[in-house]
């Protein structure tokens, strides 16, 4: 963890139900489904509520949690922090149980007891913080209402940027949160497009899966796509296909993948255009 540049848009905690724990290794578990993560976070949060806020108590908690969850991780050298839990008055989003504002900590910052240490936990910002254009981050914060998918997609700045650039090219202008805030249909269509992160039918068999390694230190870089022939898609699609860990068995399959994306983009562009006409 080595990026401490101040954020142009704060991405980590957004509202009562939207937040991120991706750099704390949230998704780096054998089963990163929402239900499995929610069960794990809820169980840990309940146990931490009964944990004495002493160094021995917190260390015993860490050992117990890591003992509960021995497993093969998608990225073995990426730490999954046992202090990730559920925060907020209704435990409605993911967050750090050692944070000074977390219940029971009495304003004390206990993150010095974590694997990364207090300084890194306090001041780290992932590459999306600097690389994702602010308007694209704002769009995500406008249309997403749940921590689970927000955290999955917010670190994917190359994927998200390429998708939004294709959309901007299609509509012939820059887009921003104002395009989606009042337009529920365009928002729903955009959510369907972004959901290729989870549902991509062309993900190759040996792909690492849903978890994204957010640190750009070369440890787990995504390899380039191995193209099935001489044909190459447009540059934005090459990025999208790489970030979705695609594998194509034929050029026909590659063209089907392009059409899948084209159809999503066309639907969103149509909704944006008709909404603009209706409010003109
Ligand atoms: S991965 Fe990025 S957005 Fe998510 S908590 Fe870490 S720094 Fe914040
Ligand atoms: S202690 Fe650090 S790594 Fe663990 S959840 Fe808190 S902020 Fe994330």
Oligomer: single chain
- Report, as a whole number of angstroms, the end-to-end distance: 48 Å
Task: Quote the beta fraction.
Answer: under 5%
**How is the main sheet built?**
2 strands, antiparallel
Number of helices in the DSSP assignment: 12
Low-confidence stretches: none
Question: Any ligands, ions or cofactors bound here, and which?
Answer: iron/sulfur cluster
List the domain count as a whole number. 2
> What structural class do you assign from the helix and strand content?
mainly alpha
Describe this structure in words.
With 280 residues, this protein is mostly helical. It has two domains: 22-126, no CATH class; 130-279, no CATH class. It contains twelve helices and two strands; from the N terminus they run ααββαααααααααα. It has helices spanning 34-49, 55-68, 118-123, 127-131, 134-143, 147-154, 157-171, 177-180, 184-194, 196-199, 235-243, 251-279; strands at 84-87, 93-96. It has a two-stranded antiparallel ribbon with strand order 1-2. α7 runs antiparallel to α11 (235-243), α7 crosses α12 and α9 (184-194) packs antiparallel against α12 (251-279). The longest helix has 29 residues, at 251-279. The mean pLDDT is 94. One iron/sulfur cluster is lined by residues 24, 81, 83-84, 96, 98, 111, 114, 116, 121. One iron/sulfur cluster binds next to loops.
């Amino acid at each position: 963890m080595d990026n401490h540049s101040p954020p142009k848009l704060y991405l980590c905690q957004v509202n009562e139900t939207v937040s991120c724990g991706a750099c704390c290794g949230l998704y780096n578990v054998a089963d990163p489904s929402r239900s499995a993560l929610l069960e794990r976070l809820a169980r840990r949060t309940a146990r931490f509520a009964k944990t004495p806020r002493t160094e021995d108590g917190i260390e015993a908690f860490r050992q117990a949690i890591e003992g509960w969850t021995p497993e093969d991780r998608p990225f073995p050298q990426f730490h999954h922090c046992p202090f990730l839990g559920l925060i907020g008055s209704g435990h409605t989003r993911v967050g750090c149980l050692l944070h000074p504002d977390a219940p029971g900590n009495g304003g004390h910052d206990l993150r010095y007891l974590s694997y990364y240490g207090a300084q890194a936990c306090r001041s780290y910002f992932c590459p999306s913080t600097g690389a994702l254009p602010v308007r694209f981050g704002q769009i995500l914060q406008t249309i997403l209402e749940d921590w689970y998918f927000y955290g999955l997609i917010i670190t994917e700045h190359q994927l998200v940027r390429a998708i939004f650039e294709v959309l901007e090219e299609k509509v012939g202008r820059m887009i921003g949160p104002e395009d989606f805030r009042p337009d529920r249909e365009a928002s729903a269509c955009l959510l369907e497009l972004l959901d290729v992160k989870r549902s991509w039918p062309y993900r190759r068999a040996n792909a690492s899966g849903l978890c994204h390694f957010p640190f750009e230190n070369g440890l787990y870089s995504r390899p380039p796509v191995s193209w099935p022939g001489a044909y190459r898609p447009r540059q934005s699609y090459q990025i999208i296909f790489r970030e979705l860990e695609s594998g194509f068995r034929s050029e026909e399959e590659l063209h089907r993948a392009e059409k899948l994306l084209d159809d999503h983009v066309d639907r969103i562009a149509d909704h944006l255009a008709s909404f603009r006409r209706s409010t003109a």
